[in-house]
Specification:
This protein has 2 helices and 7 strands, in the order βββαββαββ. The chain is of the alpha+beta class. The strands form 2 sheets. It has a 5-stranded antiparallel beta sheet with strand order 4-5-1-6-7. Helix 1 runs antiparallel to helix 2.
Amino acid sequence: LVHRIAVYVPGTVTVCRPAAQVQQAWTDQLLAAFGTLFGGSTAIHVLGTWIGVDGLPVREPVNIVYSYCTDDHLSGTAQTVILALARRMAVEMGQECVALEVDGSLYLVQP
């Protein structure tokens, strides 16, 4: 399996309010979607920091949902589905953006 695709699930809503239940719901939804699209998926829990648009640091728990896949799995359809989920998550969680990683390149998906 030559490709890795991942979505970073924030642990907050509207940047600074903790939201463990919302994070877990999105993690479960992405695990299911990745499993269906790529044949399996994994989630890991990490701690992340980043600088918000106000210039202040934000520190939060993050779940990273990822899969490894083949060229055939990483078709335009699968990428479109994952991008749409990431964008919807950003909207519903009130995020400035969420991270989508493909083969080591990070894309910031805005609502």
